[in-house]
Design goal:
By secondary structure, the protein is an alpha/beta fold. Helix content is 32%, strand content 22%. It is built from twelve helices and 21 strands. Helix 4 links the parallel strand 5 and strand 6. Helix 8 runs parallel beside helix 10. The longest helix has 26 residues. It is globular, with a radius of gyration of 23 Å. The structure holds 5'-deoxyadenosine and iron/sulfur cluster. The site of iron/sulfur cluster has 9 residues, from helix 5.
Length: 461
C-alpha cells in the first residue's frame, strides 16, 4: 500500500506557537498548489508554524515549475531577492529549500554556486521535509545543520493534503494521480514528475468525503492527465466520476487537465449525464497543424480534436472549452500557425493559455532545431491572443442579457463592494450589492463583460 495514502490530517489540530516558522511559496500548476497544501499539512503535523511572509520565517520553501525556462529563471532570481530582503530588514539568514519540478530536474546542482540553496526535495520525497527542516532550523546538537538533496521517483508516494479552509475559488483541489505516460516531445513533465501513478479510488473517495464533512461542496480533480486515470484496469476516469458524483453532500465536480485523445465518447456522455460534473472542459490542443501535432507526438489530428469538440457539444449541455497552445514549435511554418488560428476560430474557446515554445534540456524536441526566430514567436503569440480576444468578445456579447446560476467565491478585487461568482461552465461574474458568501448559490443576469470577466445583477437577493 502506498506510503502516504493515509487519512486526512486533522485541520482542527494546530501546531504549537513556538515551532520553527516556514513560509511556502508556490509556482506553476495546481498540482503544486495541492502539494504545497500537503507539505503544509506534514509540517504542521510535525510542530512547524506556517507563516505568510519570508520576513517572519525560519525557512522558506519554493515549490517550483520547470515547464518553461522563464519559470525556472524566476525562481533563481527569487532566491537572490529573498536573501536581499532579509538583509534589508536586518534579519539573519534564512534556510531556503527548493521543492517541485526544478528540484527533480536540477537536483544537487541547486546547492552549488552563488544562488545555492540549503535543501532540494523532489516531488516524491516531501515526507522527508519535517526531519530535514528540523535539522536545519533547530539542530539537536546546536550546529547549523547540513543541507540535503532528496530526489527520485517513488510510484507509491501519494500525498493527501488537508483541505484548505477557504479555497480561493471555492473548489477544493484533490490530486487523483501523478506523473504522465504520454511523451509529448516538448514536455519536461514526464521527466520531473515521473511515470503516471494513480491514487487509490478508496483514498480519493475518502479524501472527498472528508472535504464534504468539513463543509466543502465542490472539488477539482487534478492530474497531469486526469482523463487517463485507470485503476488496475478495473476503473477508468468515467467510472471514477460516477463514484465521486455519488458522494452525498458534494455538489460540483470540476477536473483538470484532460488529454484530447482520452476524451472518449463514453467519457463525454458520462460527463453529460452526471449533473454534478461541471460542463467545462480544459482540453489543450497545443496546435491546429497536423504536421506540428505529429512532431509534438500529441496522438490526434486537428480533425479528430474538432470531432471531439462536436461530440462534447452534443453530449454536455452548455459545455464551454479552454485550451493551451504553443507557438513557435520547431519547424512551425506560417501555414502551420494559420492552422492553429483556424482551429481556435472553429472551437470558439472561452479562454486559451498560449505560450512561446521554450526548449527544455533532455526532452525529445530538444533534438530538433529551435528554429522559429524569437521575433516570429512573439508576433504569433500576439496574433493568437488577438484572435482569441475577438472570439471571446463575440461569445461574451452573445451572453449579455442571459440569466445564469452561479456560486459565490468571495470579494472581487474591484470595484469595491463587488462579489465574485462562478458559473458551472467556469465563467467568472462580478456582482455588485449585498455580500455573497463563498459557496452561496445565486441567480444572476449578465449585463456586460470585459477582458475575461462578466458583470451581472443578482436576481434572487
Ligand atoms: N514550451 C512552451 N510551453 C510548454 N508547455 C509545456 N511544455 C512547454 C514548452 N517546452 C505548455 C503546454 C502545456 C502547458 C501547461 O504548458 O501548452 O499544456
Ligand atoms: Fe506533458 Fe504531454 Fe504529459 Fe501533458 S500529456 S504532461 S503536455 S507529456
Amino acid at each position: 500500500m502506498a506510503t502516504f495514502q493515509n487519512s486526512l490530517p486533522d485541520l482542527t489540530r494546530r501546531a504549537p506557537a513556538a515551532g520553527p516558522a516556514v513560509y511556502i511559496e508556490t509556482y506553476g500548476c495546481q498540482m503544486n498548489t495541492y502539494d504545497s497544501q500537503a507539505i503544509g499539512g506534514l509540517l504542521e503535523g510535525a510542530g512547524f508554524r506556517l507563516v505568510d511572509t519570508e520576513l517572519a520565517a525560519d525557512a522558506v520553501l519554493l515549490n517550483t515549475c520547470s515547464v518553461r525556462e522563464h519559470a525556472e529563471h524566476k525562481v533563481i532570481s527569487r532566491v537572490g531577492e529573498l536573501r536581499m530582503r532579509r538583509r534589508q530588514a536586518e534579519l539573519g539568514p534564512v534556510v531556503i529549500g527548493i521543492c517541485g519540478c526544478m528540484a527533480e530536474r536540477l537536483g544537487d546542482d541547486l546547492r552549488k554556486g552563488p544562488k545555492a540553496v540549503d535543501l532540494v526535495v523532489g516531488v516524491d520525497n516531501y515526507d522527508a521535509l519535517p526531519g530535514l527542516l528540523k535539522d536545519l532550523t533547530a539542530p539537536a546538537d546546536g550546529s547549523g545543520g547540513a543541507g540535503a538533496t532528496r530526489t527520485g521517483h517513488r510510484l507509491d508516494a501519494h500525498y493527501v493534503a488537508p483541505p484548505e479552509l477557504y479555497p480561493v475559488n471555492n473548489s477544493h483541489l484533490v490530486t487523483i494521480h501523478k506523473g504522465c505516460d504520454y511523451k509529448c516531445t516538448y514536455c519536461i513533465v514526464p521527466m520531473t514528475r515521473g511515470p503516471q501513478s494513480e491514487k487509490a479510488p478508496a483514498v480519493i473517495l475518502d479524501e472527498i468525503a472528508g472535504i464534504v464533512a468539513r463543509g466543502g461542496r465542490e472539488v477539482t480533480l487534478l492530474g497531469q492527465n486526469v482523463t487517463a486515470y485507470r485503476w488496475q484496469d478495473s476503473l477508468d476516469f468515467a467510472g471514477l466520476l460516477e463514484q465521486v458524483a455519488a458522494i452525498d453532500g458534494l455538489e460540483r465536480i470540476r477536473f483538470l487537465t484532460g488529454h484530447p485523445r482520452d476524451m472518449h465518447p463514453h467519457l463525454m456522455d458520462t460527463i453529460g449525464r452526471l449533473d454534478k460534473v461541471c460542463p467545462w472542459l480544459h482540453v489543450p490542443a497545443q496546435s491546429g497543424s497536423d504536421a506540428v501535432l505529429r512532431r509534438m507526438k500529441r496522438l490526434y489530428t486537428a480533425a479528430e480534436y474538432l470531432a471531439m469538440v462536436d461530440h462534447a457539444r452534443r453530449a454536455i449541455a452548455g459545455v464551454t472549452f479552454s485550451s493551451d497552445f504553443i507557438v513557435g514549435f520547431p519547424g512551425e511554418t506560417d501555414a502551420d500557425f494559420r492552422a492553429t488560428l483556424d482551429l481556435v476560430r472553429r472551437v470558439e474557446y472561452d479562454q486559451i493559455f498560449s505560450f512561446k515554445y521554450s526548449e527544455r534540456p533532455g526532452v525529445p524536441a530538444a533534438r530538433l532545431a529551435d528554429d522559429v526566430p524569437v521575433e516570429a514567436k512573439k508576433e504569433r503569440l500576439a496574433e493568437l491572443m488577438d484572435v482569441q480576444q475577438g472570439i471571446w468578445a463575440k461569445v461574451a456579447q452573445a451572453q449579455v442579457g442571459q440569466v445564469v446560476q452561479a456560486v459565490g467565491e468571495g470579494p472581487a478585487r474591484r470595484p469595491a463592494g463587488a462579489w465574485r461568482v462562478r458559473t458551472a461552465n467556469n465563467r467568472k461574474v462580478v456582482v455588485l450589492g449585498a455580500e455573497i458568501a463563498a459557496g452561496d448559490a445565486v441567480t444572476v443576469r449578465l449585463t456586460g463583460w470585459d477582458a475575461t470577466t462578466f458583470f451581472g445583477d443578482r436576481l434572487d437577493a
